[in-house]
Design a protein that fits this description.
Elements: H1 8-21, E1 23-27, E2 38-39, E3 42-43, H2 51-54, H3 59-62, H4 76-85, E4 90-96, H5 113-116, H6 124-134, E5 137-142, H7 168-185, E6 192-195, H8 203-207, E7 220-221, E8 251-254, H9 272-284, E9 288-293, H10 303-319, E10 337-344, E11 347-354, E12 362-365, E13 371-376, E14 379-383, E15 385-389, E16 392-396, E17 407-414
Parallel strand pairs: 1-4, 1-9, 4-5, 5-6, 6-7, 8-9
Antiparallel strand pairs: 2-3, 10-11, 11-17, 12-16, 13-14, 13-17, 15-16
Length: 430
């Protein structure tokens, strides 16, 4: 929990697992998976979980979708196992999104999975049990400032139905605060509380939630509560900052296609290469990658998501050492790919993530340190020689690239990196 009296050492200890993890799964799931991007036989533009807002669906009409939300194929153990197989270390699921629908048995409303659906069972409890079983940290997303179902909750998202009218302060007091107490109380130890959309959250409204964090000592929160509360980490969405966010913990959340919540007609899937390059790029700048899946109303993760996560997992099985518990690159982005590093026991291991295996077999690394060892991470017996020059080290590669997406070379050097000043500053798009 954030404390004004927390020392740097205490904060580092609390954030330690998160900084080591580097890779997590986001799950956007709810009643919006029933219309799946289609309303009145029309494809609705925009992200799937916003269909109630985008199509201006009346409250009375939208709540009828819950009668068709019946996730009989939901297998939380399989979901968590998939995350683990992909190399993810934590999971964040939408306990309640902007449509106000709770995936848990809330006592302050009937607009939840237990009371409003034929499924009739809490979806978060078995997921929490599966996370504990597989050693995956669990986090809950909660939309505290936007709720299009309950009166007073639609302030941030606009009004299109008089049923939404009401006091936001009453909504915060009677729905949001009690529900956050429920999710922080009923599911065992939680690692993360992921707020969203701080619009209209003044200081008084935000501070109503802060005492609840004491229910979960050690919990980590993001920067979207509002009211001037910074939280523990920043959350760039759908883009990677050019130079990371120096001096601040941060996590990029991204979709695999163009939506968070399931849309039946969104087939614009990113390639596995793009996803792995994103993961490497983010780690090379010192951030975490929260990669989303959007399950169907029956409780299935779409097959294209499963295929990509398994492919990422195969890469991580070989190269995870170059992602987990690493720090940002000590030098600017090289033309051949990216770099991460670990410093320990008087040496630094630079992990050279080679996107483009050079035709001339050389990698320029702008450091002047003495080399201890240089090898292919996938096969440490495959060693490479290095040459020291005025522009730094040159790694002399042999053979072909072992991985067409990203091959990793381990370069062990003495001491901390002594970076040679580069003449031309490189820029990039995130």
């Amino acid at each position: 929990m954030v404390s004004h009296n927390e020392t740097k050492e205490e904060r580092d200890a609390r954030m330690g697992w998160w900084r080591e993890a580097r890779f997590g799964m986001f799950i956007h799931w709810g009643v919006y998976a029933v219309p799946a991007g289609i309303y009145q036989d029309k494809q609705i533009d925009g992200i799937g979980e916003w269909i109630m807002n985008r199509a201006k669906i009346p409250v009375a009409e939208y709540i009828e979708y819950a009668k068709r939300f019946d996730p009989v194929k939901y297998d939380p153990d399989a979901w968590v196992h998939l995350a683990k197989e992909a190399g993810m270390k934590y999971l964040v699921i939408t306990s309640k999104h902007h449509d106000g629908f709770a995936l848990f048995d809330s006592k302050v409303t009937d607009w939840d999975v237990v009371d409003a659906t034929p499924y009739g069972k809490d979806l978060l409890k078995p997921l929490a049990e599966a996370c504990r079983k597989h050693g995956i940290k669990l986090g809950f997303y909660y939309s505290q400032a936007q709720d299009w179902r309950h009166p007073g909750g639609a302030a941030a998202g606009g009004h299109w139905d008089e049923a939404q009218e009401g006091s936001m302060d009453d909504y915060i007091r009677d729905i949001a605060v009690p529900q956050v107490r429920e999710i922080l109380t009923n599911y065992g130890p939680l690692a993360i509380l992921w707020w969203d959309t701080p619009t209209d959250m003044n200081q008084e409204r935000a501070e109503a939630f802060l005492p609840l964090l004491e229910l979960q000592p050690g919990i980590i929160t993001n920067n979207r509560l509002g009211g001037g509360v910074e939280g523990d980490f920043s959350t760039p969405e759908q883009h990677i900052p050019d130079t990371g966010i120096p001096g601040r913990d941060w996590e990029v959340c991204m979709t695999m296609n163009d939506t968070w919540g399931f849309k039946s007609w969104d087939d614009n899937w990113k390639s596995t290469q793009t996803l792995i390059h994103n993961l490497v790029d983010i780690a090379s700048k010192g951030g975490n990658y929260l990669l989303n899946v959007g399950p169907t109303a029956e409780g299935e993760i779409p097959q294209p998501s499963i295929e990509r996560l398994k492919e990422i997992g195969r890469w991580m099985q070989v190269n995870g050492e170059a992602i987990y518990d690493t720090q940002a690159s000590p030098f600017q982005r090289p033309e051949w790919g990216r770099c991460t590093r670990k410093e320990q026991d008087g040496k630094t291991t630079l992990y050279l993530h080679v996107f483009d295996w050079p035709a001339d077999g050389t990698l320029g690394v702008p450091v002047s340190n003495n080399v201890i060892a240089c090898y292919l991470l996938a096969d440490r017996s495959r060693e490479f020689s290095t040459i020291q020059g005025k522009e730094g080290l040159t790694v002399q590669l042999t053979g072909d690239a072992p991985d067409t997406i990203c091959s990793v070379v381990g370069l062990e050097i003495k001491g901390k990196p002594e970076v040679i000043q580069q003449d031309v500053e490189q820029t990039e798009e995130g």
